[in-house]
Design goal:
21% strand; Rossmann fold; alpha/beta; 412 residues; elongated
């Protein structure tokens, strides 16, 4: 939806020690994580594991790790041990593309989870498609990724290898606009975005939905990621007479915007998307965040019975980052890939196909995904989008994100 050194949780291939079998490797000594000394397959993860957005990026990494640990301990795919290969993309498209190339070039990798940011995803799609490798993002929300540039008038799927367990901004922007207008009774909003794929797209959709409802846009502006001084923006918002700010972007900039705005005496809420929904936002903005809002995909993870064990495991392991935003969706994205490997193996007489044939068949199997995940039902439509359209509005209450509305949105 950002900067640190490359992180690889576990090394799957030891030079000269393992020989390739199918699309993985053969480990004659077995594996302490629950495998049964069979084929070793890797699932890649690309996310910002350091610097900006690392709070949510680490949630994706460890969500995937827990899914892999669970699959191995349960021997979900008999004779197969899964490993994770987590790469830091620093929320930068160029690095994301390098990560995609590295993952597809590793013969043990059968699929990938991530990235966090829609802009990073755009740089990776073609690489994975060329390798016929499945990619499942737990957080990308830009509609163009699955339905093309003309998604509003003539949707067409660009890549059959790309899926996501997150619902899109086509719903999130309208959901936020409806709550702002009908729930909060806001009539005059100042709209700001960070000029990135995710932020600009979300702000545009909020703008369209809000004005369609009868609201007025008091003004618009753009900022750059990494900016620290928003004094002039705060003045513009103050002079506009807006009763709310809507921000399309990430928590780093939005936390500073709300703080500097309220320092000028303008006590209006800042509303944003899932890129803002992180504990780091509250920590950075401090008391200025009180009353601010954000939408996020799905329902609150802590309220899902199926996610109880996941949350307990995440906390007991002492994993860094925030599992609340995308951890459960990363777990389910990873499980979808693992289940696909199982389906392919069973359909092939109990044996994994060899070489690139495995990757291709896994893509087809993921398309047929249908299971109850820890985030809810997991299945994909003809575009590769999740069929789970639930969204939640959160508000900062006494220094914590509190769910104030959960539901769906009909853009028609």
């Amino acid at each position: 939806m950002r900067q640190r050194s490359l992180v690889i949780l576990t090394s799957v291939l030891t030079t000269g020690a393992l020989t390739l079998t199918a699309c993985g490797s053969r480990d004659d000594k077995g594996d302490s994580s629950g495998g049964d000394s069979g084929t070793v397959l890797t699932i890649g993860v690309s996310a910002p594991l350091s610097g900006e957005n690392s709070t949510t990026g680490l949630g994706i990494q460890y969500g995937a790790q827990i899914a892999i640990d669970d699959a191995n301990s349960k021997k979900l795919v008999e004779g197969v041990t899964f490993k994770i290969k987590a790469l830091d993309d620093k929320a930068q498209p160029g690095i994301g593309q390098q990560n995609a190339t590295a993952l597809t070039g590793d013969k043990s990798v059968v699929g990938a989870v991530g990235p966090l940011n829609s802009g990073v995803a755009q740089s990776m799609l073609q690489v994975f498609a060329s390798a016929n490798m499945v990619q499942v993002s737990p957080s990308n929300t830009n509609p163009e990724l699955t339905m093309g540039k003309n998604w509003q008038t003539a949707p067409k799927r660009p890549y059959k290898t790309y899926f996501r367990t997150a619902t899109t901004d086509a719903l999130q922007g309208g959901f936020a606009a409806d709550y702002a207008f009908n729930g909060l009774k806001k009539k005059k909003v100042f709209v700001v975005d960070d000029k990135q794929t995710y932020g600009a797209g979300l702000a545009k959709l909020f703008n369209e939905a809000f004005t369609k409802l009868g609201g007025k846009v008091a003004g618009t502006d753009h900022v750059n990621t990494g900016d620290k001084d928003f004094g002039s923006l705060a003045t513009k918002i103050k002079n506009s007479g807006a009763d709310m700010v809507y921000y399309g972007g990430q928590y780093d900039e939005s936390a500073l915007i709300t703080k500097q705005l309220k320092d000028t005496g303008v006590k209006i809420p800042l509303f944003g998307g899932d890129g803002m929904f992180a504990s780091t936002y509250i920590e950075a903005a401090g008391t200025a965040s009180e009353g601010d809002l954000a939408t996020a995909i799905g329902v609150p993870v802590d309220t899902l019975p199926a996610a109880k064990t996941f949350v307990e495991t995440y906390k007991s392991k002492g994993y860094k980052g925030d599992y609340g935003a995308y951890g459960a969706y990363s777990y389910d994205a990873t499980t979808a890939i693992i289940n696909a490997v199982k389906a392919v193996k069973e359909a092939n007489g109990g044996k994994l196909p060899t070489g690139e044939d495995l990757r291709s068949k896994v893509v087809d199997a993921v398309q047929k995904t249908d299971f109850e995940g820890i985030s809810g039902k997991v299945s994909f439509d003809e575009f590769g989008d999740t069929t789970n359209k639930q969204l939640t509005v959160y508000q900062v209450v006494k220094g914590e994100w509190k769910a104030v509305k959960t539901g769906t949105y009909d853009p028609s």
